[in-house]
């Protein structure tokens, strides 16, 4: 790997920033080709912090170092120490490679979409006796999928309505007798007879018609049935049908029809200001706008490139189903995006879809302006606090802090825990718990060495990004142990500091540097409050984990002392009840339902009751 260069001469904190490239980067800039491709910007730790694509690599990459920047772009350039690039044969290949690299390395400065479960769908299964169900992912299994729905409640209400009006199968299949749903008119009777396939096909055609927006015929049919039930004095049935009609009116018909055809479409538009990109996505289904989604990102490149990257990532999520058409504003390479997605990508020029495009832009602007107002209030407590800490330690501006703490009771049940703060905010999905394997007594240094070794060996093996600062909740012993493992064993140069508490067990100072010097922060500063929050959070997380583990071991030990309770029985009781008190409150029948003999169950009840009485005394 080529040695990292250094970026110097950052002139202004608030206004435009001019960056001069190191000699190393200057030499690499001169070798850039006039070809399309992807580039990867790296920091001093050789971590990829940004991935971009370019029609002309030479012009694009040089622009970072030869022009003035502000906002997120200036922050990016200030952290670039080196870069690499990959040449592609076309702009389309560059798009595809960019998305692949972003998802692989998750660079800090790129727009990154989480791979969540997405929105729920209604599915008609591909079976001899099909049924309707709610699912969160799309599979190529021959089933019919409808949606997505704005939320689970909307999907459930629609499903319940369809089960009442157009039933398929609701039971588990043939069981020799009619199920309850059959008696309620919500199952065609696969539970006790062979239902003709034509009956299912007829129902599925009606279900598809309804879900595609054709509700008027359904409503008319229901109104006729309601009148017939009322004439027969079956007022209970009439009231039930009335509620079904009411559901159509409040959940389906209330959505404004925005087109004359029923083509499923997704519409994207944006508003860009002060380095921030606000994106609005409108989901058009059944000729109606059924859902709006908004996203906000600080961005590095121009808005058009960032939005293109967003759209391609958006549909790369395995649970996002492609519509029949995607609408985007003018100024984009619709042909390339269409080729990658495999569906038509168009820009509306007039009519209702053009009006909807303008509405999406207006909403994007309102959302971003609201964000700016909130950022003014929040920035000093998060990003600003992080910068105060790195400035006090004299290290480069960073984004991610990982903090560690240990917990035990007289050397028993030793555990460690790690919390992560990104730009001054807790990132709880990154928290980690550790049961210590190589330490069997209270040894702060040994505990630190094990957890640091395990954490960062794993990150290196997985080629994951490293933190900008490691904090240890303790003094010189933990600090020096962590530093020794990182530097001498793993060859890493991650800054490490110790969080010191005063005689009142409150956050006081930081220990940092080879001489373990005390670094004092203003007790009224946001930086000090950040360290205080981190120290309290890692201590809470470690203590909570230790208590959970200790309680589990205590329960296990209590059960081990009972005659007739072996490892299998103990596991069953632990899994089912989880605590001594819950076992004590359980009946013998509940215990025997786990496959435990009545004799052992009674013994467990008597023994646990005795233990609980002894503990209460």
- Structural category is alpha+beta
Total of helices: 20
CATH architecture grouping of the largest domain: 2-Layer Sandwich
- The number of distinct structural domains comes to 5
At the fourth level of CATH, the homologous superfamily of the largest domain is UvrC, RNAse H endonuclease domain
Cα separation of the termini: 68 Å
Could you say which overall geometry the principal axes of the C-alpha atoms support? flat
Helical proportion, percent range? 40-55%
- Contiguous uncertain segments of 5+ residues: 1-18, 253-257
Quick take:
It contains 20 helices and 21 strands. It is an alpha+beta fold and 617 residues long.
Describe this structure in words.
The UvrABC repair system catalyzes the recognition and processing of DNA lesions. UvrC both incises the 5' and 3' sides of the lesion. The N-terminal half is responsible for the 3' incision and the C-terminal half is responsible for the 5' incision. Interacts with UvrB in an incision complex. The protein is α+β, with helices and mostly antiparallel strands. It folds into five domains: 17-105, GIY-YIG endonuclease, CATH 3.40.1440; 121-252, no CATH class; 265-377, Nucleotidyltransferase, domain 5; 387-549, Nucleotidyltransferase, domain 5; 561-616, DNA polymerase, domain 1 (Orthogonal Bundle). The protein is 45% helix and 19% strand. The strands form five sheets. Strands 14, 15, 16, 17, 18, 19, 20 and 21 form an eight-stranded mixed beta sheet that branches. A five-stranded mixed beta sheet has the order 11-10-9-12-13, with helices on both faces. Strands 3-2-5 form a three-stranded antiparallel beta sheet. Helix 15 (476-489) links the parallel strand 18 and strand 19. Helix 14 runs parallel beside helix 15 (476-489) and helix 16 crosses helix 17. It is flat. Residues 1-18 and 253-257 have low confidence and may be disordered.
């Amino acid at each position: 790997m080529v040695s990292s260069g250094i970026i110097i001469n950052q002139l202004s904190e608030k206004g435009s920033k001019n960056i001069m490239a190191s000699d190393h980067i200057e030499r690499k800039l001169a070798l850039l080709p006039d070809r399309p491709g992807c580039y990867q910007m790296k920091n001093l730790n050789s971590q990829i912090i940004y991935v971009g694509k370019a029609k002309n690599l030479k012009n694009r990459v040089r622009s970072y170092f030869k022009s003035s920047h502000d906002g997120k772009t200036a922050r990016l350039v200030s952290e670039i120490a080196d870069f690499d690039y990959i040449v592609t044969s076309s702009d389309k290949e560059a798009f595809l490679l960019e998305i692949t690299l972003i998802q692989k390395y998750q660079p800090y400065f790129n727009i990154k979409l989480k791979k969540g479960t997405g929105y729920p769908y209604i599915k008609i299964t591909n079976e001899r006796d099909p049924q309707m169900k709610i699912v969160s992912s799309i599979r190529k299994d021959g089933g019919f999928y409808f949606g997505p729905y704005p939320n689970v409640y909307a999907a459930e209400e629609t499903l319940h309505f369809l089960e009442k009006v157009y039933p398929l199968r609701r039971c588990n299949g043939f069981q020799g007798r009619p199920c309850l749903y059959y008696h309620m008119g919500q199952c065609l009777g696969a539970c006790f007879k062979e239902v003709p396939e034509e009956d299912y096909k007829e129902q599925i055609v009606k279900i598809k018609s309804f879900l595609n927006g054709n509700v008027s015929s359904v409503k008319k049919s229901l109104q006729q049935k309601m009148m017939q039930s009322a004439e027969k004095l079956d007022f209970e049935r009439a009231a039930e049908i009335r509620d079904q009609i009411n559901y159509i009116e409040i959940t389906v018909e209330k959505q404004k029809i925005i087109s004359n055809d029923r083509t499923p479409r997704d519409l994207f538009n944006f508003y860009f200001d002060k380095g921030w990109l606000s994106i609005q996505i409108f989901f058009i289904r059944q000729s109606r706008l059924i859902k709006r989604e908004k996203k906000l990102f600080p961005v590095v490149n121009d808005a058009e490139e960032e939005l293109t990257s967003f759209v391609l990532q958006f549909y790369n999520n395995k649970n996002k189903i492609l519509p029949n058409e995607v609408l985007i504003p003018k100024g984009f390479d619709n042909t390339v995006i269409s080729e990658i997605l495999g569906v038509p990508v168009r820009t509306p020029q007039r009519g209702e879809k053009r009006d909807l495009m303008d509405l999406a832009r207006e909403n994007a602007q309102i959302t971003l302006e609201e964000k700016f107002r909130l950022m003014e209030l929040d920035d000093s407590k998060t990003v600003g606090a992080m910068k105060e800490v790195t400035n006090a330690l004299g290290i480069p501006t960073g984004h991610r802090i990982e903090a560690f703490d240990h917990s035990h009771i007289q050397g028993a049940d030793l555990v460690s825990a790690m919390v992560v703060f990104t730009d001054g905010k807790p990132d709880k999905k990154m928290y980690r718990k550790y049961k210590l394997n190589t330490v069997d007594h209270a040894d702060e240094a040994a505990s630190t060495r094990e957890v640091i070794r395990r954490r960062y060996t794993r990150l290196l093996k997985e080629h994951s990004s490293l933190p900008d600062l490691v904090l240890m909740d303790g003094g010189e012993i933990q600090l020096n142990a962590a530093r020794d493992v990182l530097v001498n064993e793993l060859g890493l140069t991650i800054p490490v500091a110790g969080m010191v508490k005063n005689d009142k067990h409150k956050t006081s100072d930081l220990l940092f540097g080879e001489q373990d010097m005390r670094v004092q922060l203003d007790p009224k500063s946001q930086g000090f409050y950040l360290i205080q929050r981190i120290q309290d959070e890692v201590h809470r997380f470690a203590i909570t984990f230790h208590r959970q583990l200790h309680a589990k071991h205590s329960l296990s030990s209590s059960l081990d002392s009972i005659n007739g309770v072996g490892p299998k029985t103990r596991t069953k009781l632990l899994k089912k009840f989880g605590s001594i008190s819950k076992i004590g409150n359980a009946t013998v029948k509940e215990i025997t339902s786990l496959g435990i003999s009545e004799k052992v169950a009674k013994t467990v009840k008597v023994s646990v009751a005795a233990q609980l009485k002894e503990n209460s005394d």
